[in-house]
């Protein structure tokens, strides 16, 4: 189990999580993630996975902005997923699942794009998580991990081992936050 379920139990409380996202200035990163997905030119019916979805704000915003996509949100916290389901309404393009990035409950080659926004630094096993992202990614798909820049080093090292035939690079988004991009070479 990752840090969300152990010493940082307050991350399981959606309203507190939303407040802390505002305090720490993560909202612009979430907005950037949604804009990046909208600009990705994914095919109609494409599938996007948001790992570490928290209260489900990013998948809901992607679904609103990209009506042709199916968006799945996954989080370790049942409380977060319950909240995401309640606030998402009845949009059948949105689905939320309780699960661990190290053991994703999806078939191989299930998603065109996998994103993770400000959660990778909480993963108990980054190598297992990145291997799972590689497993569920369709051929030709991409992985984008947005997180604190120092934390991305762990994910980058894991991606070098998990993704063959892909270009892997870190991008600076702000002084604190970066994005790891994994795309076919």
UniProtKB/TrEMBL annotation:
GO molecular function, one term: S-adenosylmethionine-dependent methyltransferase activity
Domain Methyltransferase type: 49-145
Name of the protein in question: Methyltransferase type 11 domain-containing protein
Lineage: Bacteria, Bacillati, Actinomycetota, Actinomycetes, Streptosporangiales
SUPFAM superfamilies assigned to the protein according to its UniProt record, in alphabetical order: S-adenosyl-L-methionine-dependent methyltransferases
Transmembrane segments: none
């Amino acid at each position: 189990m990752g840090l969300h379920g152990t010493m940082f139990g307050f991350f399981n409380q959606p309203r507190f999580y939303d407040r802390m996202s505002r305090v720490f200035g993560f909202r612009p990163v979430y907005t950037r993630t949604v804009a990046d997905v909208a600009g990705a030119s994914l095919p109609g019916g494409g599938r996007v996975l948001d790992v570490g979805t928290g209260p489900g704000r990013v998948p809901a915003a992607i679904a609103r902005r990209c009506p042709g996509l199916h968006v799945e949100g996954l989080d370790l916290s049942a409380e977060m997923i319950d909240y995401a389901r309640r606030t998402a309404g009845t949009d059948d393009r949105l689905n939320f699942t309780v699960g661990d990035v190290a053991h994703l409950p999806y078939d191989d080659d299930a998603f065109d794009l996998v994103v993770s926004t400000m959660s990778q630094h909480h993963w108990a096993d980054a190598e297992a998580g990145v291997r799972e992202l590689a497993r569920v990614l369709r051929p030709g798909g991409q992985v984008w991990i947005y997180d604190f820049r120092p934390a991305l080093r762990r994910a980058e090292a894991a991606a070098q081992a998990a993704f063959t035939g892909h270009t892997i690079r870190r991008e600076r988004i702000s002084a604190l936050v970066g994005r790891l991009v994994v795309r076919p070479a």
